[in-house]
Amino acid sequence: MAQETTKDQWRDPAHVQEFFSVRARDWDARFPDDGPAYDAAVADLGLRRGDVVLDAGCGTGRALPALRAAVGPRGVVLGADLTPAMLEAAVRAGRQGAGRLLLADVTRLPLRDGSVDAVFAAGLVSHLADLVEGLSELARVVRPGGRLALFHPVGRAALAARHGRQVTPDDERAEPNLRPLLVRGGWHLDSYTDEDTRFLALATRSDRPARNGAVLG
């Protein structure tokens, strides 16, 4: 069995890129039935026509078509990912037409303060070395009152079982842990769903500046 990536390893961007680079080509084929769950999560984000939306850690861009459909032709869809091979897979799948792809670390986004209406983040939480830092950076680029969706197409217990482990009390995605982390990152948790068929935490950007949110030039 392959050794599971540790939290400390996620602190190294080179390791993250290596991990996903070797999986990018067949990533979509490994999870062929996730499409409806992505579509439903995008719908729950409550996007409006003309919105600017960021898919943070977009991977192969599976959410981009649904995001484009939600914001319409006048909206802006951005997909940011750290791994070139995942973005290349998005292009091979024809998803670059749904949004602009950015090679970027989501903890240091090349976007202006308050320039985004909403963020969709699938599977991102477990790939951030410092969750508050990542949430703060997402809050920085989102306007006050903007929305965040932290999503995974299966729930915590189902995902843990897939990896041959159990859910632990210190899991950052558990509601009692996630709620204060979101507050520290500049967000208010509005709703929380953790069931076998999906994980979805919806939050609203606070009016106050996010803690630890760096301002990029």
UniProtKB/TrEMBL annotation:
Database matches in InterPro entries: Methyltransf_11, Methyltransf_Superfamily, SAM-dependent_MTases_sf
Domain of life according to the entry: Bacteria
Positions of the Methyltransferase type domain: 54-149
UniProt cross-references to SUPFAM superfamilies, sorted A to Z: S-adenosyl-L-methionine-dependent methyltransferases
CDD domains for this protein: AdoMet_MTases (cd02440)
GO molecular function: methyltransferase activity
Membrane-traversing stretches: none
Cross-referenced Pfam families: Methyltransf_11
Any one biological process term the GO annotation gives: methylation
Entry keywords, A to Z: Methyltransferase, Transferase
Keyword Chaperone recorded: no
Protein name, as recorded: Class I SAM-dependent methyltransferase
Organism for this UniProt entry: Streptomyces roseoverticillatus
Lineage of source species: Bacteria, Bacillati, Actinomycetota, Actinomycetes, Kitasatosporales
